[in-house]
Design a protein that fits this description.
Layout (H helix, E strand, L loop, with lengths): L1 H41 L5 H5 L2 E2 L4 E2 L2 H32 L4 H13 L4 H15 L6 H25 L3 H9 L4 H29 L3 H4 L21 H10 L6 H32 L1
Antiparallel strand pairs: 1-2
Helix pairs in contact: 1-11, 3-6, 3-8, 4-6, 5-6, 6-8, 7-8, 8-11, 10-11
Length: about 280
């Protein structure tokens, strides 16, 4: 009887592992296919001139330097505005706010905010940052718009990372007379930092690939110079890719895939950087 039960459990375990492995393969295969296909189609267009020159003839000639620089500016601006506010909000909601109907309503609103279509954030940025605050069509308005979109993910992941820190750490710190803020700053945040970094990278990676929000708040198709201040217009890889792929006739296919490959590399470079920071943080812990 006991052997029968053990055999049944082994079969159940193997079946579960098989289905989990199959689900993993199904999930990873399309991603690998997209990456390999993009590299295959776009690698031929990647040259030094392609990366450092300005575009000409509506993008058919020249390079994509302004789009690369504009995308990096946009990602950095989004990170600067979204990360501090999102982490501080996550700390307050987790460590200081009382568990009442108002807090639960705020948490529900944050979760729902993550599902708002990106074009709605674009219209919000146009109304608030461009027209009301008079920032104009600019890099600043676009960064603030994408930061508003990224806030939900940053707050949610920060809260989950902070909640994952064992309560014993807090109780031990408070028991020796350390203040609440010192406990949060020196005990809770270092333990939660890998999760916070992960959430920030996911938010910034999504911002790097957004087209709809920046379309109405400052992105331009072709510019003769790089942005000199936050109030200047800018070029960005996702909007530039969309435009040359759909609006420019006789656009070389290799150039389109080359732009897509550069955008993919930019996003993956942030992911690799975040992974390195997470590993280093865990080693310190």
């Amino acid at each position: 009887m006991t052997r029968t039960v053990l055999n049944s459990r082994k079969i159940t375990q193997r079946t579960a592992f098989t289905f989990l492995g199959l689900a993993t393969v199904i999930t990873v295969t399309p991603v690998l296919f997209i990456i390999i296909y993009t590299i295959t189609k776009g690698a031929g267009a990647i040259t030094w001139d392609f990366l450092i020159q300005f575009p000409s003839q509506a993008g058919r000639e020249g390079g994509i330097l302004p789009a690369i620089i504009g995308t990096f500016y946009l990602m950095i601006g989004t990170l600067v505005f979204a990360l501090p506010i999102g982490v501080l909000a996550g700390i307050y909601l987790t460590e200081y706010a009382r568990d009442n109907w108002l807090t639960r309503l705020i948490n529900l609103a944050i979760v729902n905010l993550a599902g708002v279509p990106s074009i709605v954030f674009g219209l919000f940025g146009l109304s608030v940052f461009v027209l009301t605050f008079h920032f104009g069509l600019s890099l600043l308005a676009a960064s603030l718009t994408l930061a508003a979109q990224a806030l939900a993910m940053v707050i949610t992941t920060s809260r989950e990372a902070i909640l994952a820190v064992p309560r014993e750490f807090r109780e031990g710190s408070l028991a020796i007379g350390v203040t609440k803020w010192q406990t949060v700053r020196h005990i809770v945040l270092p333990q939660a930092m890998p999760g916070i970094i992960t959430g920030a990278v996911l938010a910034i990676s999504r911002a790097a690939g957004e087209t709809a929000p920046i379309l109405v708040v400052g992105a331009a198709f072709l510019l003769p110079k790089l942005p000199q201040s936050p109030l200047d217009q800018f070029m960005a890889l996702p909007y530039y890719l969309y435009t040359v792929a759909t609006q420019v006739p006789n656009m070389p296919e290799g150039t389109i895939w080359g732009i897509a490959l550069v955008l993919l590399i930019v996003v993956l470079s942030f992911d690799v950087l975040a992974a390195a920071i997470r590993i280093k943080t865990r080693q310190r812990k």
